[in-house]
Design goal:
The protein has helices at 11-21, 57-61, 75-87, and strands at 3-7, 27-28, 31-32, 34-38, 48-49, 52-55, 67-70, 91-92, 95-96, 101-102, 107-108, 113-114, 119-120, 125-126, 131-132, 137-138, 143-144, 149-150, 155-156, 160-162, 167-168, 173-174, 183-185, 190-191, 196-197, 206-208, 213-214. By secondary structure, it is of the alpha/beta class. The chain has an eight-stranded mixed β-sheet, with helices on one face. A six-stranded mixed β-sheet has the order 5-6-4-1-7-8. A six-stranded parallel β-sheet has the order 10-13-16-19-22-25, with no helix packed on it. The chain has three helices and 27 strands. The radius of gyration is 17 Å and the shape is elongated.
Amino acid sequence: MAVYAFYSAGGFAREIHAGFVHSIGMVDNGERGEVVFIDDAAESQGQVIRGSRVISYEEAKSIPGIKVNVAFADPKLRRKKVEMCAADGLETFSSFAPTSIIGDDVKIGHSAIFAHNSMVTSDAQIGDSFHCNIYAYVSHDCIVGDFVTFAPRASMNGRVKIEDDVYVGTGAIILPGKTDRYLTIGKGAIIGAGAVVTKDVEPGSVMVGAPAKPR
């Protein structure tokens, strides 16, 4: 039996759990699988949440063929855990809620999470380990790097490029780029909740307000 593990038993992992269990992603070569949580906290291990066991990372490594999706929202922590899993030879999987929408000519990397009512419209390129939370969307002709997080209702309009390790907060809006030039969000930037991004963002910046300015 295939075993799928969400690394984290926190709130976001619990949110996406049901959507994954009820999606076609639960079927691996015609064989129905088990879903578990991995949690590093000893007090959580051994519990059963939403009908799924909570196990340690060490136990996860002992399960043949286990597939892991790291569900931490923090891009830096998620990258660290994904690299650890890769070093230990663990495979990854992507989770698409039944109500998520993936449009035409969209390329998505490994280990993505698309929550309920999230969307990529068309002609977009998404990197590895992307998190698209509830009601968040990526519009046409966009490029998203690796380990990017969209919090609920984050909105990315057309012709925007987001580099690696960016966090886009709840309700933030990234306005569209131009036909001949992407609006670019630099690596490791944080876009605050409710911010409205109207121009390029420097790497590592923290942007807040409408229009968004460095904090």
